[in-house]
Amino acid sequence: MPIVLKGDKNFENIPSLKAKALRINLNETIYGTFAEIGAGQETVRHFFRAGGASGTIAKAMSAYDKSFSDAIYGAEEDGRYVTEMRLKKMLTHEMKLMEQRISRKENPNKIFFSYANTVATIDFAKKFKGHGWVGIKFQLDPEEDYNEIILHIRFKQTEARLQQETLGIVGVNLIYGAFYKNHKPKKLLKYLYDHIDIDTIEIDTINFSGPRFKDVDNRLMSLQLVKNNMTEAVMFGPDGNNILPAAILYKKNILALRGSFRPVTKVNMDMYKKSYEIFIRENKVEVDKTVVVFEITLSNLRAEGEIDEEDFMDRARLLCSLGQTVMISNFQEYYKLVEYFSNYTKERMALTMGVNNLIDIFDEKYYRHLSGGILEAFGKLFYKDLKVYLYPMIDPDTGLVITSNNLKVHPRMKELYKFFKYNGKVVDIFDFEQDILSIFSREVLKLIANGEDGWEEMLPKGIADLIKQKNLFDYKPKKLAEKK
Description:
Elements: H1 17-25, E1 30-37, H2 42-50, E2 57-61, H3 66-73, H4 84-101, E3 111-121, E4 130-138, E5 147-155, H5 160-180, H6 185-191, E6 201-209, H7 218-227, E7 233-236, E8 242-243, H8 245-249, E9 253-258, H9 266-279, E10 290-297, H10 298-301, H11 309-321, E11 325-329, H12 334-342, E12 349-354, H13 355-361, H14 373-381, E13 387-391, E14 393-394, E15 401-402, H15 414-421, E16 426-428, H16 441-449, H17 463-470, H18 478-483
Parallel strand pairs: 1-2, 1-3, 9-10, 9-12, 10-11, 12-13, 13-16
Antiparallel strand pairs: 3-4, 4-5, 5-6, 7-8, 7-11, 14-15
Helix pairs in contact: 1-2, 1-5, 2-5, 12-14
């Protein structure tokens, strides 16, 4: 049965896998190769079975032996074969062969493609669940440059045979989507799950590139993966391209900052800089093995109802312009974020947060769904030697600076709070910039929306210029705001 993703009502007329493969096969212009490593020729099998494949399939191959695979695609420096780099080499190599062997003069209307996957299915001991890279390099016009869609999947099934079948379905959906749904990238993402249960695989990274996707922002595609429950979290780098979480988090020390960053302010950057200085002075924390993550939760993006994609993109552009790595997650509670990180590393972890965030952590209402309540959550949150770096705030009523020493949690939580504080789990950031403590993102946003002065000085260098140049957060010059 096809899956039904949230908000998707038009699922009754999804074409069968055979129909998809046959439509590709019967298109006289589509011609390409299949290179599948690690899970059998599961994708191309659908095209052979559908009929009419002779005019579509130039070659189908599996280079299982590592030595033979290296002889074709070149050896990998790190010795790993299930990587994005390996997949790109496969796609590029096979496309070059197509261009060399098939005369464009004799086939002026042919549009070429190369489909590839490199996969490791679940091992015999069932210790490693399996994952893989899947991609297609294709053109939609003989005179046009190539487009690419590359994605990373994680298998959730516990049998290699089932994983192989699922991989074949994903491959058919990807090829069909590339040729017939390329004009609707968001929907193409959903179509990848046609005839697959949503609990079968996780897609945690996808990147679109090429002339047909020149207007596609891969950060927005990342958001769709989380929004559609295809994965729990996605990451993208300063260049705006999606990054495989495992690739950046594996065996790293992690410092995470959660916020709305709407917009990113001097306070946010001071929190980052001061906590980073503390973190790298911690025992066993090496700078070159440390990653900083600015995290935004879906619940934060939904703060005012439905997710505003343009608003999300405004925040993402600003963080990327500051050279930051961004994570979008569906982890409302901090302990879930820490659990996620612990899947990839056993090294040091730290969370930077403001006073209000720490007070919320000690609110029992967030843990009613857990059988062990707040104690179970805290066991997961403060496992090993995780620390919280606490940035102070000014009490708007008294003007008093609030730190870990004078913040107030619910009376029932006092002893629990004291336990974690006096065991060194909560570390105050003391060398903060006192004159910026009164800056709040929501106040900056109001000033921007109302066309008022003074907000520029509240933001990191260059951010105000970007907001004005690109009209982010509905920015309007003062004259226009006055007319309104």
